[in-house]
Amino acid sequence: MQRIPRDLARKYAFDWRDEPLLRVKPGEVFEVETWDASTGYFKTENDKAIPGKRPGFDRSPPMANPIAGPIYVEGVERGDVLVVLIEHIEVADYSWIAIGPRRGPLGESTRWPELSADYTTRILRHTPGPSGTMRDGTMAFNERIRWPITPFIGTLGVAPDREVLTSIDGQGAWGGNLDVRDIAPGNRILMPVFHPGALLYLGDVHASQGDTEYTGTAAETCATVRLKLEVIRKKRQACLRIEKADALIAVHSARPLETAVHGATQHLMAWLIDEHGFSATDAYCLVSTCPDFRIHVYQMCDVAKLSFVAGAELPRRYV
User: Fold this and answer.
1) Domains in the chain, number
2) Has residue 259 got a pLDDT over 90?
3) For a Cys-Cys bond, which of 20, 214, 274, 314 suits 72, CB 3.0-4.6 Å?
């Protein structure tokens, strides 16, 4: 099985000029070892998010959020759609979250001074589950609170059309740093392709995350991702889409938040109209009346130039 080892997973931009690290065929299973968002800096609670102490933070934008790639997919062309199928994600034995002065929406808080007075790093320990692996393991937030590890790929994308965009704040229809917790094992991720071979990058695995990633970091961790890729030839698609076993999700990133919500909703409507036989009137009325239509605010953190990321979801039974 082909693999990208972690020591090569240190790219910080989606750049079509990069030489591929891997060439795979559609349907071929392969593995990628990823770094956490700090490229291994946070190991203990003594490792603080002080910019002057972090390697790569003397650059603008900082060298954070490393990704592996590009991965060249044989036979894929511009105008196709790349389908990513994640078989499983094996996370490391810990994850981390870091807060502090001028980090996130409460980095200058006067209401809760402890959030902005000093830097705080939390190390969240992982425990293997019945399988003996982290695939069904648990995470300890503290001595009282635990929950199942629910990993997903936070940064996933193909090389965009023209501009080179960074892995820390690049986002678009092609993917990027989206922190969508539905980019997870068992789901199909569909992205439009802009270059021969698609040129896929991925990294920034989270062991778990709630909606919005409010602080700017979640449960950041290293991981090994096993996946395979498929291709849909000559298919028009204006956004990243997710096919779950029981639902469809259209994803859009923009600022302000309501623009992201409008975009995701209208992308979902277009999906229903173009591929599932809905009239425009039916699709428009459905998203306002269906009690199971949902808007997810996946990412709403004030970091660099990041846009907000929304997803519009509709159960398949209505399709």
Assistant:
1) 1
2) yes
3) 20
Q: What is the pLDDT of residues 180-211, one digit of tens each?
A: 999 999 999 999 999 999 999 999 999 999 99
Strand order across the 308-315 sheet: 3-4, 30-34, 223-232, 81-91, 188-192, 240-243, 247-254, 308-315, 294-299
Tens of pLDDT, residue by residue over 68-85, are 999 999 999 999 999 999
Domain extent at residue 96: 3-236
The enclosing domain of 147 has a CATH number of: 2.60.120.580
Residue 152 lies in a domain: yes
On the question of pLDDT at 124 being above 90, the answer is: yes
Give CA–CA dist 262/312, Å, rounded. Answer: 9
Alpha carbon dihedral 282, 288, 292, 294, in 10-degree steps, equals 120
Strand duo 3-4 + 30-34: pairing: parallel
| Total Cβ atoms within 10 A of residue 221 | 29
Q: Does a structural domain hold residue 251?
A: no
Please check the confidence at residue 139 and state whether its pLDDT lies above 90.
yes
The pLDDT-based confidence of 301 (bands split at 50, 70, 90) is confident
47 within domain boundaries: yes
Locate 286 and state its tokens.
């459905």
Q: What's the pLDDT at 203?
A: 97
* CA angle 261–87–43, rounded 5-degree value: 80
| CA distance linking residue 250 with residue 287, whole number of Å | 13
Residue 196: inside a domain:
yes
Sign of the dihedral defined by the CA atoms of residues 83, 88, 92, 96, in that order: positive
Question: Contact, 314 vs 289, CB < 8 A?
Answer: no
Helices 257-275 and 280-289 meet at what angle, rounded to 10?
A: 130
